[in-house]
Amino acid sequence: MCSFHSPGDNFAMSDTSDNSLWQLITVRFKEYTREPEALFWSFGFPILLAIGLGIAFRSKPADIVHVAVVTGDARATTLADALKRDSGLAVTLLPPDSAAAALRTGRVALIVAPDSVGGVLYQYDDTRPDARTARLMVNDAVQRGAGRADRLPIADRHIHERGSRYIDFVVPGLLGMTIMGGGIWGLGFSIVDQRRRNLLKRLVATPMSRAQYLASYVISRLVLLALEAGVLLGAATALFGVPMRGSFVSISIIVVLSALAFGGIGLLIASRSKTIEGVSGLMNLSMLPMWVLSGVFFSSENFPQVVQPFIKALPLTATNDALRATLLRGVSLPGVAPQLAILATWMIVCFGIALKIFRWR
Amino acid sequence: MSDLSNPKHALFVRDLRKHYGSVRAVDGLDLAVAPGECFGLLGPNGAGKTTTIEICEGLLAPDSGDVELLGLRWDREERQLRERLGIQLQETQLADKLTVQETVRLFRSFYKKGRTVNDVIALVQLEEKRDARVGKLSGGQKQRLALACAIVGDPDLLFLDEPTTGLDPQSRRQLWSLITEFKSLGRTIMLTTHYMDEAEMLCDRVAIVDHGKVIALGTPEHLIRSLGAEHVVDFALLDESVSLDEPTLRGLDGVLAARPLAGGYELQVGALHRAVPALLALLAQRGLQLSRLATHSATLEDVFVSLTGRQLRDE
Predict the structure, then answer these.
(1) Quick check: A31 contacting B, CB < 8 Å?
(2) What top-level class would CATH report for the domain B228-297?
(3) Which residues of chain B from 160 to 199 reach within 8 Å of chain A, CB to CB?
(4) pLDDT grade for B239, boundaries at 50, 70 and 90
(5) Nearest by CB to A1, which of B2, B149, B182?
């Protein structure tokens, strides 16, 4: 046996802890944690986004509606006084030019102008919900000021329900977006980078198991995702009181299945590309429609009925819908079975095709 | 006993062919490398060296032809072969974010048996860089790390594709001594290079490859001797408008062959002490002056030039 002796060499059969799957996974983590930008994009960014949106769309005690009354007519002051009796209205007296400018820039929602025949002219943008609200409130105050009385006695009771605020809507969307980005970027970018560097070819030239190579990506992705999801949901609960009404198991299953579906898409995108530019284009092409259509920041129900079946079939829509149902409404797994089926289909189809066409060099 | 005692050849290639579009990268190539031999494929860029070595490494499929390594074949015994080969590709950028030690440990984990991580790092003299990130290494250090990854599985057959291309002279010499050390342990090495000094320095036998074919095969000494000339004289005239005809030059005492080359002339010379005075006498008689005169011992480069009329370094 011609072994390759050098001083002190005992030809150790193994460091048994050096299992190749374990090595591949730890290498993944090391490469990831040594990339500060990647850490920021997966942990810091969603939280900052949630905080920003939480502040912008925070629930105010009761929205004050700003309106302007045009000066220059004797009745202007009377009108303003009538309006000021409603505590939900903030009234400013402005000359016509300034009032028009304030409306254009959104500082007031509506302009009240006394007209020449004893009536009142409302100027506002009827496509703006806050302007339509202002129209109702202002008209009510104006008519009361003019002596109108209520025919029926009424009473108000205010209910502020956690789970129906904008921040409650957006947090599951951000989680879905994080899962999508992690799966697609995490696999796509890194695999193509290794192929571009000839490193994939070099690894394939060793006895390395190809299944272990791919498994190392999936496993490290899932572990990182558990952390990312935990941090994001933890922050959302602690900072904004976003409810977690579904069970931990249901939420976990949705998150893991989503991660596998997007991992499959990432692998498929990365299966042939040899350049970062090429794969970046494919990744953006696949993610952009979902950012817009899948209800991350606003409900996907806003899109026309005719495209709804297509939108519902997108994996991010399925993820977001399932997460919202579980987190906000406490729906159990059977209730989100259609979404889970969509995600499972994406996962199986994408992994299947990717493994068939994967370029190992 | 070593498995190497069974097959007659560590590497055996017969009538290998591979084309890309209309380009025949490998065009009927035969090779037989004996166990323990360091065998070199020498040729210019684009001669088909890398295609040949990558087919041998099982990374490319040939159009036709037979390849047998250590008595095993890729279609039947890939897994066994992978365990017993060490491979350094022409251009691999290992992961920048990992350290030297982490990289070697990763590669070690793929092999059932092999050397320890520490031994290999010591062997390629990277102990001081053990915890340095790969991205911070110099070109020579990266090549040594690539060599470490190639030998960590304790291979019976080591493939090195252009191991010193792009390195400074000192790094090249350092790498050569490492390869020589590995060779002295009796393992088989197959390397490609377009540096004739590298082939002369490292290889027991050399196959000169051009246009996908072996055009000469033998030990470096044998190939150089086949020129029949021990020395080469290279000169150019001050007055570039004057040209000397080849029969005249060939007729000079001690000169075996002559050809115009690189703006001047090259003479293959059997006896330098007779040829140079004869050349100077000829120039004096015609009133010509030299702008360049150099002589060197004949090398593999000269073998290549005499076979193809081109220089190795021609791109």
Answers:
(1) yes
(2) alpha beta
(3) 182, 185-187
(4) confident
(5) B2
B239 interface with A at CB cutoff 8 Å = no
Q: What is the 3-state secondary structure (H, E, C) of B174-192?
A: HHHHHHHHHHHCCCEEEEE
Alpha-carbon distance A121 to A123, whole Å? 6
**Best CA proximity match to A94, nearest among A132, A74, A68:** A68
Regarding whether A277 and A178 lie in a shared domain, the answer is: yes
Q: Is residue A40 over pLDDT 50?
A: yes
| CB contact burial A279-311 (16+ within 10 A = b; e otherwise) | bbebbeebbeebeebbbbeeebeeeeeeeeeeb
Q: Which of B40, B289, B307 lies closest to B159 in space, CA to CA? A: B40
Distance, CA of A187 to CA of A29 (rounded, Å): 13
Check CB contact of B38 with chain A, cutoff 8 Å: no
Domain range holding A34?
20-56+165-357
Q: How many Cβ atoms sit within 10 Å of the Cβ of residue A248?
A: 8
Cα end-to-end span (Å), chain B? 46
Which has more pLDDT, A325 or A14? A325
- Cross-chain Cβ contact B109/A20 below 8 Å: yes
Minimal CA separation from A30 to chain B, in Å: 7
**Shared domain check, A36 and A79:** no
Beta bridge partners of A205: none
Put simply, the answer to whether B185 touches A208 (Cβ < 8 Å) is no
Whole-model pTM? Answer: 0.77
CATH number of B3-220: 3.40.50.300
Spell out the domain ranges in chain B.
3-220, 228-297
Give B80-113 pLDDT, tens digit per residue. 999 999 999 988 889 999 999 999 999 999 999 9
Would you give the DSSP letter of residue A147?
T
Q: In what helix (H) or strand (E) does residue A269 lie, and over which residues does it extend?
A: helix A248-270
Q: What is the ipTM of this complex?
A: 0.83
Rounded to 10°, the helix A210-240/A45-56 angle is: 30
Considering the domain boundaries, does residue A155 fall inside one?
no
B4 CB near a chain A CB, below 8 Å?
A: yes
CATH of the domain at A70: 3.40.1710.10
The residue with tokens 């810091």 is: A44
Cα–Cα distance between A47 and A53 in angstroms, integer? 10
Amino acid at A200: L
